[in-house]
């Protein structure tokens, strides 16, 4: 008599332990990217000066909430995969391009920094979507939703940059 096949437990299968640990590492990186984005966008949403900065400041202020929401989702998924959400001493800053400009009216510096941050997130989340294929559909589904948000953010700020370029303001 043939032995019955044991149903796969997917990412929780003991055979997938290495894949699960690797996924937790990718999710921790994503978590820190979101946290650093919260820090950078919060600063820019307050620091910028000038009439024309208002729209950008409001947009960034909304994004702070959205990026924090992403960080919470990544943290929850780290926990579900039996990882530990890292503490602040593990944080390593990477957004050198999003430090406050010398002049707080330098809106273009911030717009370009946001586009770079969103591009970095899009690249990393695309990697997570690719690596979860066939292994962890739940992490994949969650990350696709977040990736969609980041694509929207980047598109919005590309539009802002285009406006400045057309006006010859840079
Ligand atoms: Fe985000
Ligand atoms: Fe974003």
Q: What do you see in this structure?
A:
With 170 residues, this protein is mainly α. Helix content is 68%, strand content 0%. The protein contains 4 helices and no strands. The chain has helices at residues 17-47, 53-80, 107-132, 137-166. α1 (17-47) packs antiparallel against α2 (53-80), α2 runs antiparallel to α4 and α3 (107-132) packs antiparallel against α4. It is elongated, with a radius of gyration of 19 Å. It binds fe (ii) ion (FE2) (2 copies).
Quick summary of this structure?
The protein has about 170 residues and is mostly helical. It has 4 helices and no strands. Helix content is about 70%, strand content about 0%.
- Count of DSSP strands: 0
Rg, Å, rounded:
19 Å
N-to-C CA distance: 76 Å
Label the structural class.
mainly alpha
* Fraction of residues in β-strands: under 5%
The number of helices is 4
Largest sheet: none
Weakly predicted, low-confidence segments = none
The average pLDDT value, as a whole number, equals 94
Order of helices and strands: HHHH
Name the bound molecules.
fe (ii) ion
What general outline do the C-alpha atoms trace?
A: elongated
Q: Residue share in helices?
A: 55-70%
Features of the shown structure:
4 helices; binds fe (ii) ion; 170 residues; mainly alpha; elongated
Write the layout of secondary structure elements.
Elements: H1 17-47, H2 53-80, H3 107-132, H4 137-166
Helix pairs in contact: 1-2, 1-3, 2-4, 3-4
The chain binds fe (ii) ion (2 copies).
């Amino acid at each position: 008599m043939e032995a019955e096949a044991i149903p796969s437990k997917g990412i929780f299968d003991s055979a997938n332990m290495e894949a699960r640990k690797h996924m937790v590492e990718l999710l921790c990186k994503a978590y820190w990217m979101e946290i650093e984005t919260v820090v950078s966008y919060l600063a820019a949403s307050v620091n910028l000066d000038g009439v024309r900065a208002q729209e950008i400041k409001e947009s960034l202020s909304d994004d702070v909430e959205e990026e924090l929401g992403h960080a919470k989702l990544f943290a929850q998924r780290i926990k579900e995969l039996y990882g530990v959400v890292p503490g602040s001493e593990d944080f390593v800053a990477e957004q050198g391009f999003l430090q406050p400009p010398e002049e707080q009216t330098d809106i273009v510096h911030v717009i370009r920094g946001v586009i770079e941050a969103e591009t970095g997130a899009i690249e990393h989340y695309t990697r997570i979507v690719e690596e979860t294929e066939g292994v962890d559909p739940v992490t994949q589904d969650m990350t696709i939703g977040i990736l969609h948000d980041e694509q929207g953010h980047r598109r919005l700020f590309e539009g802002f940059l285009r406006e400045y370029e057309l006006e010859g303001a840079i």
